[in-house]
From TrEMBL:
Luciferase-like domain location: 20-311
Full protein name: Luciferase-like domain-containing protein
Family (UniProt): To bacterial alkanal monooxygenase alpha and beta chains.
Source organism per UniProt: Intrasporangium oryzae NRRL B-24470
Signal peptide: none
Residues annotated as transmembrane: none
Length: 337
């Protein structure tokens, strides 16, 4: 049996609005999961920026981070991530500098360059479309605002300067890996929904890594990878619960995004009900998924960690039922420890 290595275990919460539920209930569930995760020993609790999605309530990510940090005591809370092209770096520095001032030593800032939404909504965000083309430059600008205070600087982030909020670069391709490597920043790969380039992107990052010249930066590479998990007391129950995740991805593939569906049937029957193209697309997107009993998921996650060499794992659980999601994270924490 494969034994877990020392990879840290973290949670990515998409703040799902479930079928039959509300955004307010989704946010309340997020706080409850975070409080339990803290007791169960998870290291980080991240939320991701998405816009104009009926099934996701994390559009105001910085606000949610403050809400969760204020209702927990020790777990690191952060963004996995902020889509930097949607925001001026200065505004992000002020937001996360304020969070770091309120909750010192507990705030993480993951940065991505995708819009996290559709094109009409991206235009509604009113940012220059060229911002994504200068992602590395905007990351450096943001680092500067959070760095050592400069009394002579024309523009200063207050709060913000001197906080050195830890920054992660997020990505699902070689582009983010190259930016993280060039700036000497930690890198997290979104293999929970776009696993195709996982191994090659990690290799690019490690091979091109340059130690950071910024205070608080890295001397050597640090990596994280995302995974879907669904843990239950039996294989059959985990399989049933995971149908909600598959239906959510099917909605993405077919352009019919809805609230997180209720579980329905079993995985094999569900996949068999779709067209070959839909089935292939959903299967590929969810390839880094670990479903089953605690022992099985533990061993499969450990094997994944060994194969990728990542230092940390960030797992997300798309169970429709709140109690089932809590149970999944609890069983995984117990098995991993």
């Amino acid at each position: 049996m494969t034994r877990p290595n020392r990879a840290r275990l973290n949670i990515l919460d998409l703040v799902p609005v479930v079928d039959g539920g509300t955004a307010a209930e989704a946010i309340g569930s997020t706080v409850d999961v975070a409080q339990h995760a803290e007791r169960w020993g998870y290291h980080r609790y991240w939320m991701a920026e998405h816009h104009n999605m009926r099934g996701v309530a994390s559009s105001s990510t910085a606000v949610l981070i403050g809400h969760v940090a204020g209702r927990t005591a020790s777990i690191r809370v952060g963004a996995g991530g902020i889509m930097l092209p949607n925001h001026p770096p200065y505004v992000v520095a002020e937001q996360f500098g304020t969070l770091a001032t309120m909750y010192p030593g507990r705030i993480d800032l993951g940065l991505g360059r995708a819009p996290g939404t559709d094109q009409p909504t991206a235009r509604a965000l009113r940012r220059n479309e060229m911002a994504a083309m200068n992602f590395a430059g905007e990351v450096e600008e943001l680092i500067g605002y959070l760095g050592d205070p400069d009394p002579d600087a024309t523009v200063r982030a207050i709060p913000g300067e001197g906080t050195h909020v830890p920054i992660w670069i997020l990505g699902s391709s070689h582009g983010g890996a190259q930016v993280a490597a060039a700036l000497g920043l930690p890198y997290s790969f979104a293999s929970h929904f776009a696993p195709a380039a996982l191994l090659s992107a990690l290799e690019v990052y490690r091979r091109q890594f340059q130690p950071s010249i910024h205070p608080g930066g890295l001397d050597e590479p640090r990596t994280m990878a995302g995974a879907n998990v669904m843990v239950a007391d039996t294989e059959e129950e985990a399989d049933r619960l995971f149908t909600s995740v598959l239906m959510r991805f099917h909605g993405i593939v077919t352009g019919r995004r809805t609230a997180l569906p209720r579980p329905d049937g079993d995985v094999a029957s569900l996949l068999g009900s779709w067209s070959p193209a839909e089935r292939a697309a959903v299967t590929e997107m969810t390839r880094v998924s670990f479903v089953g009993t605690p022992e099985r998921v533990r061993d499969d996650l450990a094997a994944f960690t060994e194969a990728t060499g990542v230092d940390e794992l960030v797992v997300t659980c798309g169970a429709h039922d709140h109690a089932a999601r809590l149970r999944s994270f609890e069983l995984l924490a117990d098995a991993w420890s």
